[in-house]
Amino acid sequence: MPYQLSKKDFYAEPLSKAKPIDEEFVKEAYLVFACRHKFCRDICPNFDITRNEAHSSYGFHTSILAVSRGVGQLDELIDNFTYCLECGACELRCPNTCMGGDFYRRSTTTVDLVRKIRRDHMADGGEIKNWSAVKEYLDEHRGFVATQGDLVTKWAEGIKVAGDLKTALFVDFFTATQGTEVPRLAAQVLNKLGVKYGIYTTPGVTAPELLSENDDEWKKYAGENVANFKKLGVQTLVVMNPHDYALLIREYPKWFDMDGIETVFITDFILKKMKEKGVTPPKAIEGKFAYHDPCTLNTLVVEAESPRDLVGMVPGAEIVDVPPGNQWRYCCGNGNGPYRKLHEDIAYRIGQKRLRAAADLGVDTILVACPHCKDQFTDVKQKAGLPVEPVHVIELVAKAMGIEWETTSPTIG
Amino acid sequence: MTAATSTYGAVTDEVVAELKRLLGDENVLTDMHERAMRAFSCAPAPLHRWKDQTPDVVVLPGSTEDVVGVLKLANERRIPVTPRAGASGLADGAMPLRKGICVDIKRMNEIFEIDEDNMCATVGTGINMLKLNEVLEPLGKIYPDDLAGYANAMLGGRIGCGGWTLIGGKFGHIPDTVISMECVLPDGQVIWVGGGGTKKIRKSSSGYRLKDLFMQHQGTLCIATKAVIELYPKSEVEFAGYFAFDNWDDAYAALYDVTTRGFGNLSSAMIFDDKKIDFLRRDDEAFIPLPKEVKFVDLFTMYGLKCEVEPAVREGFRIMKKHGGRYLGPEQGEGDWASRHDRYHLSYHGRTPDGQATLMSWHCEDTAAYHTALPILREQYHEIVGRYMTEYPGVFDDWGIFIYTSNPFKGWGDYLIEIDVGIAELQYNDETWDAWIRMKREIAEAAVAQECSVSICHGSCREGDDDVAMHKEMKNGTFDIMKKIKRMIDPNNIMNPGKYCLDEAYDD
Amino acid sequence: MAEEIIYKYGHIEILPTRMQEYIKQQEMNEAERERIVKARNIHLDWYHRHFAYEVLKPPAEEWEPKA
């Protein structure tokens, strides 16, 4: 997939309670308000639980427009802007994007807006409720970056990594320390397929949470990554975490030249290699599975095919599918940013609703393609006692390839 | 002093505290941004007067009991109440003209029962049709309320405006597909209105037909909290055929023939007029490639069983071709029909007189007309809007006319004729707002002069419409009865005051 | 009449000169435009499936499919 460049330069100018809202931003807010039909509201998984329309793209844009008209103050709005999963469903469903964004070359960018408002608010001296949990997570991430080295490759202990960095696995903090089964099994599948690769060992802080706090710092890490990719001769970057993938596809090209580097999501990469080599997983796994589209792939990047196609390669495995278009309104509840840390209870209820929908399909397993979805569903399943087990697509494929089914990963950190 | 003019009770700290006691802290919202975004509904609004119609407090009830508590309190203190559901109605029923309490019913979205045996469901009125149909889909059922706001409108608002649906020619409109309703009256009394005294009977000959009274009242009589609605089997097939015409007379004659042929599956038939086609050629991928000789387009849609629709479609083609209609192909039919709900909600449709793209909001002036009035009204509506465009360049824009079938279960007789007007809402000031109201009034008066009705789908309770509807269209005594009913049910005039000219009910 | 538009990479697009004064275009490359078009097609397909199980094709004698 080529890089998706979509950028509004005027977002760089901070909004502040000390000055009137710039006319360009008034139009930006009006563009969503003007529709009034609020397609963005009812597709929002957060609104689906809270039923408060302030917590929607319509609510965000309308409240800014109201402030520009002297109704309310900018710094009073911040609580609203915590109720965003950053899943991108609203901005994609917005007619300004979906029906005419290509024609007019202008689209709705709610995720950017939410991050900007949080950033500008904190830069203006404001606070965000529960943000300390986000800070803590980012500090852990920074600590990981500071130590790098062993920690970043510990997930690969005992796995033969024989290639150079022309094909580099991009394993971030989360997947290297918590969702380790994904890189671990993916690496072994690649070995079985005879694919040579190296591990990129300096991923920096990639968490989208940082874009809500300090985009300059996020850009510093991104810039270092791009410089490293080029210095190390990376030609194909294979990404384990779709949160990183969406950022590499959508955010990096806003600031850096990514020409000459192909960024591929892990399911796409394995599928492509299986097809190139004519390999079909040898072991049948009979069963019917639900599949949950991660928002990062399904709405932010609009690539929903490869996880399904990969499962389709596994003999006996069948997805009881809910099409990607229907899943625009789904989220696991984790979101693509700090949401779960800010609204633990609503995140849980969103996840519960999603798992119940899977259970209604008559399956006992929900396949996922995102380690954050798996983490969230695991948590929700335990708390709610729902009989649906989250399993990563890579775990299924690895099992079908005859790779030992690991339920426990090496202890990291 | 009359009930209409005496001072309303204030939303004091004590009232807020009582509301919190009734509903819980989290369901009573007093922050300015929470209130400000509930100042408007769907139509272009006086943004320059935002504060004037911002409610004092917003409540999010979760049950009938919650609504009872709020209305009793409001009635005791004489505080205005404005119900709000999806807030996508173009008559602005959800606009709180007298501030007070906004009762936002979105939490009341439960599905209480799906009764497949009797083909109906009992739901909360905060439910959205799309969400409901996702639940019904595995059962092979659908609730066919297909409106522009399908993805976001909510049943309570649909009841409040007596909603119209695009495919009502086969499936009926809201008054037909809502079987019965639970309503909370201003004094807190809970009633259930349906066929006679029942919940699931569609047709009864017992007593007055009160369901009709509690439908389309725009929140001026009660708040509907539950409803029993009709279920249909999901259609095996859909077909949408678009046909090009080079003149109005042929497009109009073809519409007549297709709607009077007696099809059982005709869900809708439409005309896109020449100005509409020009407008769609600005940015619509389905219309830009059409040859220049295409001036008008007729559309007919059919839903139902394949064995019935297939031969009916053939007959539809024969009729269209007889009048010179040229079929525009399946891509046009499928692409455009599937975008029917989204088409207008791009904000870039507007053009300044010198051709620059500009931001405009869409307003649909809908009227109910019989067949022979359509050609007259089409010309008059364009003339009215054109005049205001000349007087206020860049503020108003004629986005063309649609004509749709609107008689439930049969295509003939009644039509919806709407002129769509683009409005540079951000530029509204007192002068341009007044101009807009005058324009609306002229359109409404043109309709009434032809013995047509001011509104068919959104309602006629908006400034510019309401006085024409109440004082001219309904001068035959209907408005007098409305006033008596209003005063009897809502003696303190707390329910959505200021709408439908109903303050006059309290003039002694 | 249709406004003059531009064809680019198989897609239609507004004349950029119309987006100079009141509302301006954002920076958007071809990949982003492809993403939007793909999303639109997903959305329109979803609408058809949602209201009926099948979209009926026109009678064969009335329409010749493109080669």
Keywords:
heterotrimer, B: 508 residues, alpha+beta, 7-stranded antiparallel sheet, C: 67 residues, two-stranded antiparallel sheet, 4 strands, 33% helix
Q: What's the short version?
A:
The complex is a heterotrimer of chains A (413), B (508) and C (67). Chain B is of the alpha+beta class and 508 residues long.
Secondary structure: elements and pairs:
The complex is a heterotrimer of chains A (413), B (508) and C (67).
Chain A: E1 6-7, H1 23-33, H2 39-42, H3 45-50, H4 57-68, H5 89-93, H6 95-98, H7 101-104, H8 110-123, H9 131-147, H10 149-153, E2 167-170, H11 173-177, H12 181-193, E3 198-200, H13 215-232, E4 236-239, H14 242-250, H15 252-255, E5 262-265, H16 266-277, E6 287-291, H17 295-301, H18 305-313, E7 317-319, H19 324-327, H20 339-342, H21 344-359, E8 365-368, H22 371-384, E9 389-392, H23 393-400
Parallel strand pairs in A: 2-3, 2-4, 4-5, 6-7, 6-8, 8-9
Helix pairs in contact in A: 1-4, 12-16, 12-23, 14-17, 16-18, 21-22
Chain B: H1 13-23, E1 28-29, H2 32-36, E2 57-59, H3 64-77, E3 81-84, E4 101-104, E5 111-115, E6 120-124, H4 129-136, E7 141-142, H5 155-161, H6 168-171, H7 174-177, E8 178-184, E9 190-193, H8 210-213, E10 223-230, E11 232-233, E12 235-245, H9 248-260, E13 266-272, H10 274-280, E14 296-304, H11 306-322, E15 326-327, H12 330-338, E16 350-351, E17 357-358, E18 361-370, H13 374-391, E19 396-405, E20 414-423, H14 430-449, H15 466-473, H16 478-489
Parallel strand pairs in B: 2-4, 3-4
Antiparallel strand pairs in B: 1-2, 5-6, 6-10, 7-11, 8-9, 8-10, 12-14, 12-15, 13-14, 13-19, 16-17, 18-20, 19-20
Chain C: E1 5-8, E2 11-14, E3 27-28, H1 30-51, E4 52-55
Antiparallel strand pairs in C: 1-2
